[in-house]
Amino acid sequence: MWERFSYYGMRALLVLYMTDHLTQNAEKKTVILGFSQLENALQTVFGPMTVQPLVSQIYGIYTGFVYFTPFLGGILADRLLGQRKTVIIGAVLMAIGHFLMVFDQFFLIALLYLILGNGCFKPNLLTQVGSLYCEGDSRRDGAFTIFYMGINLGAFFSPLVCGTLGQVYGWHYGFSAAGIGMVIGLFIYLAGQKYLSPDMISQKKISNLKNKPLSRKEFKSIFGLGVLCILNIIFWGVYEQQGNTIQLFADKNTDWRIWGWELPSTWFQCFNPAFIFILSPILNIFWSRQAKKNKEPNSIAKMALGSILLGLSFLILILGVSHIQSNQKLSFIWLAACTFVYTMGELHLSPIGLSLVTQVAPARFASMLMGVWFLSLFFGNYLSGYLGTYYEKMTKENFFFLLTGLGIATGIAIFSLKRPLSKAIG
Question: Mind listing the domains of the chain with CATH numbers?
């Protein structure tokens, strides 16, 4: 919860901070170590860019590498340090990164600390959740949904605290609050060590599995996961617009007045975790009842439905935008409705995918394969930055229609591969 509080608190502010503060004039850009070189490199590849496409590219690179480094963090834990030590290292690095965000000149260095810290933290914490359950335990999907609900409690409060501090009192107050949240999370993790299962590296030493070659079944399972990872890229490229172009839409094109009070636009980031918290137990109960009747869809079918729901959610914004004049702002209720639908899609894909990885991955490669799953999110998050460069080049309706098409097409692709993937994964 506290790690998500820190991450989403920073993410709620990131695009607005870059757009409204860091990139406003050349003088501020020169203060930031390495910023001019990064801007020149991006413009060499993509041509001259205005502020919004430049910010979108940086956002995509940052969030992408947040999901690239878990592959390396998984290998580090599997082969050398174990999950517990690697998680602690990750938490310390992320805390340092958040506090460095207080200083404009260290902006890119702070992002680097956050990227490396997240790589150590994320795959190994999730692997530890999976290790609480024996092989074949039917409660695993439900456990990951509950875990997902818990971490999104932090994601709900972070825009309220960090977003409000950043937008109302000063950007650096918001970033400092994120750092404090990460430190609290680290202390809780250290205090709760006795409740965790032994590290996977310890289990491998006991069972002597370290040098055992992959069986045919294990190889097919890993191959099936690889196919899902490829399709997962497009899902996250569309979904992560909520922290990028949809946050800009929330800030510039949405009316946040309620009862005479103007809400901070970063409160938009509260919708998704709030709906996760509300919908997770409902879906768990629904799937449990389906399971008793032998009607529960398998993990792959759930993931396909999740992608389709993601695509359909943007039809709500298309409808809303088409009914207002170009100089009018859309009520935040439309954004809430859109978020409700794509959150349903997320709950059908993200926690189910995490559960699937821990279920089918061979124990000696558990953290590494969790890192591979996050590697697909690396490409997906970079794709979100690339897609965001079209936000100002297209009408709002056409941009949202592009997101709709990509989400639905991904769901159809997963459905079409359901039979061979189910056979491969089991």
Answer: 2-425 (1.20.1250.20)
